[in-house]
Structures are given as C-alpha cells and as structure tokens.
Specification:
single chain; 17% strand; elongated; 3-stranded antiparallel sheet; alpha+beta
C-alpha cells in the first residue's frame, strides 16, 4: 500500500473551517451581536468541507487511501482475524494461566481439552504424577471423579474459572510464604548460611517436594535437607 497524501485543496479547506469553529467557540466575544450566527455558519462550513474531503479521498486509488478507509476491506480483514481465532481455538489442546503473586517463584493453572471432537475442558494443577482438577470450588483427584466428570467446562468457562483459581491460589501462596518466612530460618546445605524462606514452594501448591531457594548462593534444595530453626529477627 502506498503512502496517503491528502487532496490539498479539500484538506486545507477542512483545516481552515475547523479553525473558524475553534474561533467561534473558544475565542468569541460576549458583546458580539453576531456570535451565534458566526458559530452556526462555521459548523455548517466544516461539515461541507469534511464531505468534500471524504469524496475526494474516495476518488483516489485504493492503494493511496488511508489504511482502513474502505469499509469492505476493513470488514474482510476483521472477518479473517475472527476466522483465524476460531481455527486456533479449535486446534488448541492446552492453555496455561500463571498464578498471580508477588512473592517470586512460579506456578500456573492449566486448562486442558479432553478431545478435539468436543468442547470439553478441565481446570487442572498441571501435576504429572497425581493431577488434580478444580470442580465445585475444590481440588479433586482425577482418579476420584473419573475422566468424563473431570472435563465439565466449555473453553470459555474453563478460562474464566482458571483465572479465578489463579488469583485465589496466588493469594493463598503469598500468605503461606509470608507466614513461613516469619516463622523460621533455613540453613542452605550448599553455602551453610541461614536465611528466611525465599521463593519456597510447598507440596500443598502442586510441587512434589517442599523447596527452599537460598538468597545468598542461589541454590535450590529440598526443604527436608535444610536445617530449620525458629526465626530470631533476621538471617545469620
């Protein structure tokens, strides 16, 4: 598509009449007996100038018109984007929604499809060993509910639920980490320094083991391998 260059005469007329409207509305004098007439005339002239500019642009070749000028062209582009979106949704097998938290670490809620033939989805914790699904406001083992009942949502319902669960789990995780940090210090088995819990993840949040991230050396260790002591007001 070429660059748009406005029709000079029509464009300058629009600018000139627009300035007259500004003058009549923002810079009029209260003692001017022709104030109202000047305003009415200026807005009529602006409308006529705008129509003339639109007609002049319509006469230009399509590749010299502004992007999106043609309603038919714009409509076809939007239709194409919608069709692409529908195709991607029809082929997608999985979506991931990050937990919302400010304590570091990473967690996610996973939305998974049952089969491509059906719009049936599950909201799961993403675990590879003992996956759980979110049903009726709680995490349940897939084995306890069965595969069919584990996929009760449409895609839109599943995505909405996953975002709600991510907010809930993120807030729960934050509260848990803060409580853990305030209660204990851990000794890193790598550098032997004591520090408060940082970016730790627990089994109740989907991990297979509790983890401790050392803020001194950066290593990650199983919490069960770390010495723990009641907090004394700061790391040693």
């Amino acid at each position: 598509m070429g660059m748009y260059h406005p029709p000079v005469d029509e464009h300058e007329t629009v600018v000139s009449t627009a300035l007259h409207v500004v003058a009549a509305t923002h810079y009029s004098r209260a003692d001017d007996p022709h104030e109202d007439a000047a305003y009415e005339y200026s807005i009529e002239q602006l409308a006529l100038a705008a129509r003339a500019l639109a007609e002049a642009v319509d006469r230009k070749p399509a590749d010299e018109q502004p992007i999106g000028w043609s309603k038919d062209e714009q409509g076809s582009e939007l239709h194409h984007l919608r069709q692409e979106s529908l195709l991607l949704r029809s082929l997608a097998q999985e979506f991931r929604v990050p937990l919302t938290n400010t304590m570091g670490g990473y967690g996610e809620v996973v939305v998974r499809r049952w089969t491509l033939a059906e719009d049936r989805w599950q909201v799961t914790d993403g675990s590879m060993t003992d996956p759980k699904v979110w049903i009726d406001g709680q995490w349940l083992s897939i084995g306890s509910v069965g595969l069919e009942k584990a996929h009760p949502y449409t895609l839109d319902e599943a995505l909405k639920t996953a975002h709600q669960v991510a907010e809930y789990e993120g807030a729960t995780f934050e509260a848990w980490v803060k409580a853990t940090k305030d209660a204990y210090e851990y000794q890193c088995p790598q550098c032997m320094r004591w520090a408060f819990w940082e970016n730790g993840r627990g089994t109740q949040h989907g991990d297979e083991v509790d983890e401790f991230w050392c803020p001194v050396c950066g290593s990650e260790s199983r919490a069960s391998l770390c010495e723990r002591r009641p907090a004394r007001g700061g790391g040693a």
